[in-house]
Structures are given as C-alpha cells and as structure tokens.
C-alpha cells in the first residue's frame, strides 16, 4: 500500500477524494469561516476598486 | 533573488494543488481553492498538512523548518491557478498571523518580477485595501491577473 505522504499516492487522488478531505477538516473550515468574515467586512467601494480591474 | 520552492501538481480542474515539504520528514501539503460565496470571480485559498486521518490541518506545526519555502510554493500555485482561470481573483490570509506575515515577505521579494503580470492588493484592516506595499503590514491579500487574456 502506498504511503499517504508519497507523491504517487497524492497523484492518484481524484477531486472527489479531495472534496471528502475538506468535509473532514474542521480546522480548514474554521479558517475559511474567519477568512470569509474578514472578506465580507470589506466595504463595497474598497472591493469594487480591486475587483473591477 | 528568487526564493526556493517545491515542485507541485494539481488536480484536473486545478481546485486542489499538492506538494511535499521535505526535511526531517516528508509532509504532504494540500492547497485548496474554493469559490467565495456571494462573489462571482473571487476564490479563497487555504493550505495545510494532509494528516493520517485524511483531513487537512491548517494549524499544524512541523519540524521541517521550511515555512518560507512552503509559503512561496503556495504563492506559485496562485500564478498557476490564474493561468487557467485568468478572470478569477484569489483571496487569502495565513491561518496564523505569522503565516500572514510570511506571505507578505514572500510577495515583497518577488513583487518587482510579478508586478507587470499580477495585481496584488493588501488588506490593511477590515475596511481598507491598497495596492501591495512591501513596507506595509496586511491581514489578507488579493491577487489577480492584470491582463486577463492568456498570452
């Protein structure tokens, strides 16, 4: 059985496998929540400057 | 001088990138690109260690002493991602203040090289964004391609 830290193992994973990984990752979810909270607090005018480019 | 980085690969649709951190141990790192809810073109990025229980831990600390190389590698995945999705904007922050600072250091080192191609914004606070300034502390970043057409 290939070691889960080997590149070969990673290359054999599908996007569905990675999708499952995300569901299984509480620290990742928490990080995304915090990250989103910060993004959503940016005033619209500030965002528009950056997103319109 | 270009910072060293690890070779990386991605899944077919480039929503996930992966590479190995090599030092005292070999640690698989996973970079996740996820659409930001409520925004058409913004994706958010996070990365972490692939754990034995098949989860991604964004707070994991390891002994490889290569976080600056890891961070540089993550940034290079952004450029690759934007090559495939030139209309997207990638939003990210570190999972810790230290990692957020390392992003600034890595971007500052390469900014002269990438500035013709990529627009980098830094979020100074919850309410103020500016074009990246290497002498400014930021809490998050936004990177996009200046020219959306792939050359």
What can you tell me about this protein's structure?
The complex is a heterodimer of chains A (53) and B (151). In chain A, 70% of the residues lie in helices and 0% in strands. Chain A is mainly α and 53 residues long. The N and C termini of chain A lie far apart (48 Å). The mean pLDDT of chain A is 85. By secondary structure, chain B is of the alpha+beta class. Chain B has two helices and nine strands; from the N terminus they run βββββαβαβββ. Chain B has helices at residues 67-84, 97-114, and strands at residues 8-10, 16-22, 26-35, 42-50, 56-57, 89-92, 118-125, 128-131, 140-145. In chain B, strands 1, 2, 3, 4, 5, 6, 7, 8 and 9 form a nine-stranded mixed β-sheet that branches. The model of chain B has no long low-confidence stretch (mean pLDDT 92). Classes of the chains: A mainly alpha (53), B alpha+beta (151).
Per-chain topology:
The complex is a heterodimer of chains A (53) and B (151).
Chain A: H1 7-11, H2 15-23, H3 26-40, H4 44-51
Chain B: E1 8-10, E2 16-22, E3 26-35, E4 42-50, E5 56-57, H1 67-84, E6 89-92, H2 97-114, E7 118-125, E8 128-131, E9 140-145
Parallel strand pairs in B: 4-6
Antiparallel strand pairs in B: 1-2, 2-3, 3-4, 4-5, 6-9, 7-8, 7-9
What Rg of chain A do the Cα atoms give? Answer: 17 Å
Helix/strand order of chain A:
HHHH
Integer average pLDDT of chain B:
92
Query: What overall geometry of chain A do the principal axes of the alpha carbons give?
Result: elongated
Average pLDDT of chain A works out at 85
Q: Hey, which two chains have the biggest interface?
A: A-B, 35 and 50 residues
The level of helicity of chain A is 55-70%
- Helix fraction of chain B by DSSP (H/I, runs of at least 4): 10-25%
**Structural class given helices, strands, pairing of chain A?**
mainly alpha
Q: Beta-sheet strand percentage of chain A?
A: under 5%
Total beta strands of chain A: 0
Quickly count the helices of chain A. Answer: 4
């Amino acid at each position: 059985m290939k070691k889960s830290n080997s590149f070969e193992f990673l290359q054999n994973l599908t996007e569905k496998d990675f999708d499952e990984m995300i569901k299984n990752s509480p620290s990742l979810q928490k990080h995304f929540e915090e990250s989103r909270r910060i993004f959503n607090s940016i005033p619209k005018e500030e965002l528009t400057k950056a997103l319109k480019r | 001088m270009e910072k060293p980085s690890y070779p990386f690969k991605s899944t077919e649709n480039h929503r996930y990138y992966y590479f190995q951190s090599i030092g005292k141990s070999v640690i698989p790192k996973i970079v996740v690109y996820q659409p930001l809810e409520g925004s058409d073109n913004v994706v958010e990025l996070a990365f972490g260690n692939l754990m034995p229980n098949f989860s991604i831990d964004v707070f994991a600390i390891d002994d490889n002493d290569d976080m600056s190389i890891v961070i540089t590698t993550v940034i290079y995945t952004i450029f690759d991602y934007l090559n495939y999705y030139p209309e997207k904007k990638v939003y990210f922050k570190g999972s810790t203040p230290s990692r957020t600072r390392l992003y600034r250091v890595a971007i500052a080192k390469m900014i002269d090289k990438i500035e013709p191609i990529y627009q980098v914004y830094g979020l100074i606070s919850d309410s103020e964004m500016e074009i990246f300034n290497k002498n400014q502390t930021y809490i998050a970043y936004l990177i996009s391609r200046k020219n959306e057409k792939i050359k």
